Amino acid sequence: MSEVLLDLGELYVSDFLTDPEKEYEGREKAPLTLVMDERLGAPRLTEMVDPDKMYGTYWYRSGTNASMTNQLRNIAEEAASRVKYKTGDLWLDIACNDGTMFNFIPEEFIKIGIDPVEDSFLEFSSQLADVVVQDYFSYNAFQRTGYGNQKCKIITTIAMFYDLDEPTQFIQDIKGILDDDGIWVVQLSYTPLMVKQMAFDNICHEHVYYYSLASMKRLMEKHGFKIVDCALNDTNGGSCRIYLQKENARETSFGTKPLRDVCNFRINALLAYEEEHMDVSDPGIWTEFAVKLEEMKRQTVGFIRSEVAKGKTVYGYGASTKGNTLLQYYGLTPDDVVAIAERSPQKFGKYVVGTNIPIVSEKEMRAANPDYLLVLPWHFIKEFVERESDFLEAGGKFIVPCPEFEIIGK
Length: 410
Prior knowledge:
- It is a single chain.
- By secondary structure, the chain is an alpha/beta fold.
- The protein has 2 domains: 39-277, Vaccinia Virus protein VP39 (Rossmann fold); 283-408, NAD(P)-binding Rossmann-like Domain (Rossmann fold, 3-Layer(aba) Sandwich), CATH 3.40.50.720.
- Helices cover 34% and strands 23% of the residues.
- It contains 13 helices and 18 strands.
- It has helices spanning 51-55, 66-80, 119-128, 139-143, 167-177, 191-196, 213-222, 257-277, 283-309, 321-330, 362-368, 381-387, 389-393; strands at 4-12, 16-17, 29-37, 42-45, 90-94, 110-114, 131-133, 152-158, 178-189, 225-233, 239-246, 314-317, 340-342, 351-352, 359-361, 372-375, 397-400, 406-408.
- A 7-stranded mixed sheet has the order 7-6-5-8-9-11-10, with helices on both faces. It has a 6-stranded mixed sheet with strand order 15-13-12-16-17-18.
- Helix 5 links the parallel strand 8 and strand 9.
- The radius of gyration is 22 Å and the shape is globular.
């Protein structure tokens, strides 16, 4: 490990509490500090939190958000269009969450999910997949699917690869179950875009590594994979979708010749951009990031507290893991943000760890008619503006904290 690139201090691991007065006992803070891992060529957290503490009770459901549902649809449709498949081929989705993506996988595939999340998620995913194994992914976990004697034509790992403290064994296990001409689709937060969009809330205890395309290429080639395409999108404050094949896969097994030419240009262009403009191993980039972050914090917290002092009310919008990073780092309390409106019923009546801000339903928030909504999953702002059009028409305003402080409203 090398010098510290960015330090957000020690924060509580994201969670939602039933009784804040009792549930802090034995609960420790953990640092959100980034350093450069020279071995993998990527920034990473200095400490890894026990995964069972993060995923034993997991709160995020893909299907509750229209933008994420559309993104999963696009991933499934695009991946299926790039390989030749037949009835009975296997599609494995690792960290399948509530199984939303299975809705969009062609019916010819046998749909398999592996995810350690709790039973409430399994109720959804097991209705959509042919089989779901409730465990962390490994070669042995795949053997328990009942299809261990077959190879997977497509494997998808969406918004989870950066959670791995030690990705080497994971990659080797993928290699052991992927068809020689199959594809592995990895979509993950793209660190250069995270920096560009000031998406500091993407830094949380779940996300151990912060990859660029160059660091992914270096890591994958070391273990016998080649990148055959990459593309950026605006999911979760900026993501990169990477297509991988085994290094010995037939070139013609992926897409068409014109598509492969386009893919090669995309890969080379992004690698060149990173080298020239956004080398995330450069401490100077992170120093500039920290300076901008402090200014964003000053603007957001200052505005909220000045409006509250005038008698205005502020609610949060969307109780999320990333929102927890923002709330704790900004030092906001129930005196600043009365409550957080949420769509997921399992969070109603809970409290955000570290700040003790209560969570209410969107219906309850609308009845309270606050003056402002602080948007925590700010990357879904377009969807939220449409959903809360009545709130905005009535004179309400959104406080958008990233990628720069902004007020949306009449």
